[in-house]
């Protein structure tokens, strides 16, 4: 446990903090969103925050691949749980009607939103795991390259010594 | 835990993350591609194929984005980034004789169903459009599920029965998440199992594609 929770773990908490700020911002602006901005705020931006957090953590943390992968999956699950809870608590029928109304750009436009099924929720969880995982893959390879560079530099120094 | 076990555990999790990426990222790409192409070519956002009005719209807004996001890009990643070959992904040069015969027979049935639909349908979309779109659907879904994802799943699951069941569950509940639970459980899980089994038995991707195409056409003809 002591090995797992070192200073670098704060990167994940920073990611969660950024997500919390974004959710507070969304909560205050829910009635101004249209379908596209709603999808961006609820789906895409959190996924990008998660991807960036995972990438930064994996490229800096001096941990084994296994720990990095497990952390990436766990935090992706935490992110999706937070977002599902947020949607459950904040998105009511009135809000959905308002979002649909905001999306009507002309009289001929037809907009509809359906309630998410269990499969949709599984899809959103998988999406967060995928984004976090890709960030972790890229971060781990950056870390590997950094380490091999350090090793070759040290070898050169030893040669001159 | 020994070093060897640590390696295998991390490789196992790495493989699971890869499978999850292959399941969900093409779907996001498909959603974005469908939205963008419908905005570019028809001026408004339409993500429902049933609301499409003509052959060009169906092809450009639905069939092409599907083929690109679910088939071409995942195959390109497999071949060029993961250095996999086409044979292992099911694109064999010489399919088994019985598989070839079944494919030809199914194609003949599809042609007959299309002729039947052409007389029966009174909608704006022709039977030929439906036939071509369903071919694109069958190729896309089979390539991503039975070729790419199944190939990745083989690395961590050795039991063929379990492999088919998990693949069928992904097919039913993730790729058809908008359908109701009962129809997914009673129709698409068994269908996914049959398609996965066909892929394993024939060792090619052509038989599952033909079966999927024929199934979609038959459902349209009956419905």
Automatic annotation (TrEMBL), chain A:
What name is this protein filed under?
Answer: Uncharacterized protein
Question: What species was this sequence derived from?
Answer: Herbinix hemicellulosilytica
Q: What stretches pass through the bilayer? A: 9-30, 36-57, 69-91, 125-143
Does the keyword Membrane belong to this entry? Answer: yes
User: Which keywords belong to this entry?
Assistant: Membrane, Transmembrane, Transmembrane helix
TrEMBL record, chain B:
The UniProt entry, under Pfam families, shows: Rce1-like (PF02517)
**Which organism does this sequence originate in?**
Herbinix hemicellulosilytica
Q: Name one GO biological process term.
A: CAAX-box protein maturation
Q: Which UniProt keywords apply?
A: Membrane, Transmembrane, Transmembrane helix
Name it.
Answer: CAAX prenyl protease 2/Lysostaphin resistance protein A-like domain-containing protein
Transmembrane keyword on record? yes
Residues annotated as domain CAAX prenyl protease 2/Lysostaphin resistance protein A-like:
128-217
Mark the transmembrane ranges. 20-43, 55-77, 98-119, 125-145, 157-175
Entry's Gene Ontology molecular function annotations: endopeptidase activity
